[in-house]
Amino acid sequence: MMTPLNRSQRRQLEKIYSHMKSGSELCDPNCHKCCIEDVKLTYVEFAFLVDRLSEKEIENIFTKPRKLREDGNYYLCPFLNDAGKCSRYEHRPWVCRAYRKEPKLNACVQQPLREINQKAAQRILQLNNTLDIPPIFKDYTNPEMTIRDMFEVLFKKQA
Question: How many domains is the chain partitioned into structurally?
Answer without folding.
Answer: 1
